[in-house]
Design a protein that fits this description.
The protein has 123 residues and is an alpha/beta fold. It has helices at residues 22-25, 61-64, 67-80, 99-107, 110-115, and strands spanning 9-14, 28-31, 42-44, 89-93, 116-118. It has a 5-stranded parallel β-sheet with strand order 3-2-4-1-5. The protein is globular. The protein starts with 8 loop residues before the first strand and ends in a 5-residue tail after the last strand.
Amino acid sequence: MTSSRNSLIPLTVLSDQALWPEERRRQALLIGVPDPEGGWGDVADIPAPSPFMNRHAAGCLCCTRDPVAMVLAEVFQDRVLGKRPLFREVAVSVASKDRVAVRQQLENDVLVRARYRLVPEGV
């Protein structure tokens, strides 16, 4: 089976939720803490990093997977199984200082790249 780049779910890393138009938010999943009046279609929390991060052997799943990537895997599975509302795109809300690092981690995660298409900044 072949997959086209257009079939991947658009994924945006953002630091200002107010920049997204309301009609776009209604059909999107927000990962992070929502603005109280955000109007997002669905929301998922970013868990705290594992306290064991970098303390286990190389390749340990809890030490190598970024918490955001783990949430993206979970919400994708929930979407497929009908446990979550159908979302057309995903926004990951992070602090401005963390935006580049989070984006880089997601770009390097093979499962994220297989299911999501990172939207260029400013789109």
